[in-house]
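name: query_chain
kind: protein
chains: 1
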Amino acid sequence: MNEHVQSARTEPLFNPLAPEFIRNPYPYYERLRTMDPMHVNAHGAFVASRHAEVSLVLRDKRFGKDYVDRTVRRYGPKIMEEPVFRSMSHWMLQQDPPDHTRLRGLVVKAFTARRVEDMRPRIQQIVNETLDRIIPLGKMDLIEDYAFRLPVTIICDMLGIPEDNRELFYKGSRDGGRILDPVPLTPKEIEAGNAANMMAAMYFHQLFELRRKQPGDDLITQLLQAEEDGQKLTNEELTANIILLFGAGHETTVNLIGNGLLALHRNPDQLALLKATPGLITNAIEEFLRYDSSVQLTGRVALEDIEDIGGKRISKGEAVLCLLGSANHDTAVYPDHPERLDITRPNVKPLSFGGGIHFCLGAQLARIEAEIAIATLLRRIPDMRLDDAENPEWRPTFVLRGLKRLPASW
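structure:
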């Protein structure tokens, strides 16, 4: 991907931070899939846009993360001295086995199907209380006032963040998504990332001390006890992965709810169908994930020479950027007009939560949160309308695709 389209006929390139791309990336993806499905971008990385190659790379053990090497190649050796990049290097999301196996093993118990399913009453309670407060006002920002508060409250519950501290998180900035984009950050953006990371680290260090003195039935307490049981969770790993869990625990869900509601209101026939047939909500969530994925891209690095993927040879150490949003619109898998929203579409299995060993831990939680949030909203405010459905304000990020605001009234 490159800022300058040198030749649209032979090099279907695009700037992933350009406003027109942020508004609607899918025509650009279609061009990539058709003309250059294993495109090599200006930084020498392969860009996989078809479902077949994306799915293979996500699951193939010949690919890994190799985060430090990948980041040093992009920014130079001094980049790992920056606190935000050093912290990210400890994320389980960026680790390969055996570290990934060890870190994920410590948190996976909090996200079992049974534990997540047991959260339904609490999720419904938060949604009801939020709507009780909002409905008399006659208007809201669907992102800040609704989609954001639910998953932030749930992840605060899971981490054991005290009620008195939560207003900090409800009012927190949502400008951190750029850190994940494949376009290098400016020095100013790195500085902002460092500041946000250090503030989060300071808060969580204080919370760790509280939970050491006052253990609770929460994930932070469990991880602190695992650390003390000698499972080699260093303080840096603990801090980095709590920051990851807080961010990942709400970012994708906020975007899923917002993108799903926008898609419904831009397709009145589908909105009417879901209101008339509420039982379609589970399938509708899968279609929202496919239609406008909350996460558009994830990356891998070849751990050995690989002779043929999509007709290209990939050498050890070379990166592959997997366009999840593009794979979800591939006609080879979704032959019936993938550009259309169809909440009755059969066999929808989007790649929005990744695949292989890095498949999103919180995928089922995000689905349930979105299902309850959207179904309850449509039931309780059936006459709600979006004030600017045709030209909404998107966040200026690529990897995390979501709306900055979405005003609604009734």
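note: Residues 1-12 have pLDDT under 50 and may be disordered.
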